[in-house]
Amino acid sequence: MGSVRLLPLAAEHLAAVPPMLDDPAVAAFTPLPSPPPDGWAEQWLAGYEQARAEGTREVFAGLDDEDRLIGLGFAPHIDAAAAEIELGYLVAASERGRGLGTAVLRALTDWAFDTQQAHRLTLMIVDANVASQRVAERVGYSYEGTMRSLYGGPGRRSDVQLWSRLRTD
Q1: Are 2 and 103 in contact (CB under 8 A)?
Q2: Which of 43, 77, 31, 80 is nearest to 57 (CA)?
Q3: Residues 18, 36: contact at Cβ < 8 Å?
Q4: Is a pLDDT exceeding 70 seen at residue 46?
Q5: What's the whole-number average pLDDT of the chain?
Q6: What is the pLDDT of residue 37?
Q7: Largest CA-CA distance found in the chain, in angstroms, rounded
Q8: Residue 1 pLDDT more than 70?
Q9: Which of 5-14, 99-108, 109-118 is the most confident on average?
Q10: Beta bridge pairs of residue 138
Q11: Which of 43, 75, 118, 136 has its C-alpha lying 20 to 30 A from 54's C-alpha?
Q12: Which domains are present in the chain?
């Protein structure tokens, strides 16, 4: 399995983001635009930087041993008062199949428990995304149930599985 280092996503990483999002799996399994419109990445990062300062959201660059951006790690919802964080991740199509999704989620999970002092972590995984479900299992998440017909972006609805992990697991 490959190793991954997470750094807060910054302007220096943005050139690699749009090509990563121009992927049928991203279109099918995430609310991110695929392909993203011009200028989207800069606006998206600015929103995350504001939320980072407020402590309500975070996004990370997943870097491999050669400092190449191989994926992204997300905390789209941080509720510090409740000690609950929703996490998400994606791996570039060219990097899949090498255990990097597991490495990104493991690093995100460690960050949430160690740095954010979270008690409960959740993942929202589109029902058809079996590979992501296997990643969640490998990192110790438990399947809780399926939410039917959740909004996934303009014109998209999917059944979405809820997975969780507790600090005490």
Answers
A1: yes
A2: 77
A3: yes
A4: yes
A5: 91
A6: 82
A7: 43
A8: no
A9: 109-118
A10: none
A11: 136
A12: 5-166 (3.40.630.30)
